[in-house]
Design brief:
It is a single chain. The chain is α/β, with parallel strands linked by helices and 306 residues long. It has 2 domains: 5-43 and 182-274, Rossmann fold, CATH 3.40.50; 73-180, Rossmann fold (3-Layer(aba) Sandwich). 32% of the residues lie in helices and 17% in strands. It contains 9 helices and 15 strands. Helix 3 (72-83) runs parallel beside helix 4. It is globular, with a radius of gyration of 20 Å. The structure holds magnesium ion. Residues 9, 11-13, 209-211, 232 line the site of magnesium ion (MG).
Length: 306
Amino acid sequence: MTKTGYLIDMDGVIYRENQLIPGAREFVDALQAMGFPFLFLTNNSAPTPEDLAVRLNHLGIQGISPRQFYTSALNTADFLGETHPGCTVFVIGEGGLLTALHEHRIASDAIRPSYVVVGEGSVSMERLGKAHECLERGARLLATNPDNWCPVGAEKTRPGAGATAAFLEASSGRRAYYLGKPNGYMFHRARQKLQELALGPVGQVAMIGDTMETDIRGAVEAGMYGYLVLSGSTALENVADYVYQPTRILQSVADLTEEVLTGKASDRLNSPVFAGEGPAISRPGHRHQTDVFAFHKPRPRPAMTK
Ligand SMILES: [Mg+2]
């Protein structure tokens, strides 16, 4: 019998603000003990898989290989390697993205690159200016992920790659293409990686995440189960805002440990959204973390580019 494969988001699912979410270690231990194939799937394109393995190790989750991480930076490098071998890039991003592109032998080019690639991380106005010039000379705009903002704490957020890409969309009048979750290419490649780890076919795949617009939307569109955990950025009262719905809603991954160990799902894990009336509609104007279709700012091309 083929086993269920798990794709596990990290921030808000495994840890929050450098704190392990209670029960996360036991859940990962259970997956390893029972031999379920699993992959950590993150839209953060700044770290390398090695960085992430070290980070989990410091948090107390041991025995994870760098092969068990798939980031939006790896997804972007896979995409360019597959669709445009020999292309060149101007990169706004950090080590994880630069390393992934380097491993695919994709060269940097600040003069006439095929793409401007935008990832997570800090950016200077000078770098943005150079990227803008590359776009004006015909480069295409690609972002590792669509997150406009990312949580750094309970009360604090930082601008994400989506916001940087939006800056360049406004200045150049070009639309960016967004990889990472919820893009189907991220889930397609993640499923392939799960099969490589499992050394064979994987049965049903369950994506466990805390963000509706990326984790759950992507899972629904890729034909996977979407398990929403409430240990991160989504509150139960906001779930009913969305057209796409999770297969299940859990307090945290701790709710899954017994099921992984015994193979039996319990009723309390069923999504409350499908039982009775579901949660009330929340206040209007709730700001979604990522919504690539939420705005469109066309800008006339400047006269100098005809
Ligand atoms: Mg998350």
